[in-house]
Recover the amino acids of this structure.
């Protein structure tokens, strides 16, 4: 987490983005913040863009940023990073899609559930899917914190194992090892 923003500002930024006809699924740690009802949430939001495609239609995100008066940069993958300004708050929205260095398995996206958050219907991958993605692409030290969060909202070891199975074998092995080292008791 880079910093904090109000829940209200993050939801408003996502509402504005949805109003620009961007169809997306929340895939980042913001899922935990919103499900736990936190009023202060991370100011770095990761979305998986279903449309427009952040790689093939990148210019549309520049147009959206221009219309909304937002800044734009690039994520670590080279996809758009929207810099939303809501009042005096700044929220970064990483617009991700399947890329040669990062992908979200179809199973995780098809299991995305709709949650009403402050009047906005948001699609988000299940917390178990997020934990698997985190293990696949980031450091195990961060997973220990997430294990505590998972306990607060009740993650299922069986679901974690299912999402692990949806990863390519080489990534699955790494993610499984990291999850075990972080204290998750799962078998695949």
């Amino acid at each position: 987490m880079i910093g904090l923003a109000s829940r209200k500002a993050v939801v408003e930024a996502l509402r504005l983005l949805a109003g620009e006809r961007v169809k997306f699924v929340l895939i980042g740690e913001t899922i935990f913040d919103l499900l736990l009802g936190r009023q202060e949430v991370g100011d770095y939001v990761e979305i998986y863009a279903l449309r427009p495609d952040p790689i093939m239609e990148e210019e549309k995100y520049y147009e959206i940023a221009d219309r909304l008066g937002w800044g734009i940069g690039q994520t670590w993958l080279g996809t758009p990073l929207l810099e939303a300004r809501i009042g005096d708050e700044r929220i970064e929205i990483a617009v991700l899609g399947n890329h040669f260095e990062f992908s979200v398995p179809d199973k995780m996206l098809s299991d995305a559930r709709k949650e009403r958050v402050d009047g906005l219907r948001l699609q988000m991958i299940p917390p178990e899917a997020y934990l698997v993605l985190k293990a696949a692409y980031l450091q195990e030290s961060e997973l220990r914190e997430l294990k505590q969060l998972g306990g607060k909202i009740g993650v299922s070891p069986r679901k974690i194992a299912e999402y692990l199975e949806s990863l390519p074998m080489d990534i699955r092995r790494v993610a499984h090892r990291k999850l075990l080292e972080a204290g998750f008791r799962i078998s695949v």
Q: What stands out?
A: Residues 6 and 40 are 5 Å apart (CA to CA).
